[in-house]
Amino acid sequence: MYSDILPMLRDPQLSDENFTRLFEDCSACVVLLGREVKPFVEVICDVTWLNRNDDLVALYSKFLLNLVTAHPYYTPLVMASLMKNLKVGGENWDENPPEELIFKWSNVHTIIAQIIAIMPMSSTILMQNIVEQFPYYKLGSYCNRAYVYNLIWVTKYIPALQEQIITAIINRLVVMDVNMVDKSRKQSIQNEAIFSMEIDDDETVISETLDFCMLEMLQWLQDERDSAMNVLCNVFERVILPTHGIRHVQFLILYIISINQQCADRILTNLWMMAAGCNGLGPGALATRKTAASHLAGLLARCIRIPNTRLIQFLRNMADWCHSYITATQEAATASENVKVHGAFHAICHAIFYLVAFKHQHLFMNKTNINFIQSLNLSRLVTCVLNPLKTCPPQVIRAFSSVTRAHQVVYCQAIIERNARQSIVTEANAHYDEWFPYDPYTLPKSGEIIWPLCIDYKDWLQEGDDETQYSSMMKKLEDDDDYLMTSPKSKIASSLSNCISPGFKSM
Fold it and tell me: Which protein family is it in (predicted)?
């Protein structure tokens, strides 16, 4: 009889009458459901129950609580069966899930909360199941979105697990992000016609899934604010920052620093400390320092809510650090030109070049700001023996060289040409890191929230332009400045007399 009842219970069309009889009998003899009848327990845990009336749901909930209380070793099995109900198939919603669906999910969350209340140590089992039950990222947007929505729901009644759950979500979003095919790779793959359709399908699925999951995370940040910000700052430093090449997940950080100045100060300061090597990251930290410099430059350039006084502050900090580094290198007994040895210096120089090029509309709007840029002595960075222009992405070099040349701040052309000649002679192709973490956000749904917080790059110089095109703009420089103020302690250079001309630099 025991063997016969198992296939009967697997029938999804179990009537309400049989459902009631089954779980009343199971509750009455729950102490007898030991390890030897585990197949039976597995079957009854998978019985369809969410779509039944309130009385039957209450009966099922009572049975599960009695089961894990009498036999704690069944807790992983029960948790797994409950989590499966939080990622069922369906259709995407616009703003909020349908009330009927929320009601079903609430029954699942009620049981989970009751189990955790009775057995606090079972939170570890729950967390393990949360990670294991995460849907495959190619399974579809609805399944992943529903799961993320419900995981955020769990954080509201089990706050002790909030950071662990958010870490699990961010880890999965990062996996989706790195698996999105970038444009250059996509073009090369599509040249092989046999794979083009498959790549397009995968790209669409992953893109849509990441988009809706990001939408849920942004909604969580908006609802929770203070507690969410502290958690996300921690997760950013552990998960997002060490990951190179992602293009979307890091915009969660841009969002929170846009709505909270205290969080912005923390993020920007920590990024600078990492990039400058002031926090003792230890051996093998070069990649993290370079990534931190890229994030710092991207946030300062792109985030519309960061005041330009912060831009001035960090530009000054970066320039002073680079000058100190050059001085220390020149005084060292053996100065190496190995890019890896001086990778942090190159990364911070690239951040300065990127910011000067990107924020030129503010940094060169009047004489006061131009004097500030001159006080940074960028010529010394450009002409030093470490040659940071050699490893800088070409598009940044072009924009930086054009803007600074037009305003007679730095002349880079001679060094650019010399680097190009050396590259031809040595037949070595320089490897440029062309990843800019906060390049334009491309996901459409979540982008409606992100786009208003981002500044678009305005390229006043087109390909082939020179400084003569700035002559009309130079005549219209205003004396007042609502944004950028230089520090009273800053030493303002009044001319270029102290600058070293790249064309006359000794080899």
Answer: Belongs to the RRN3 family.
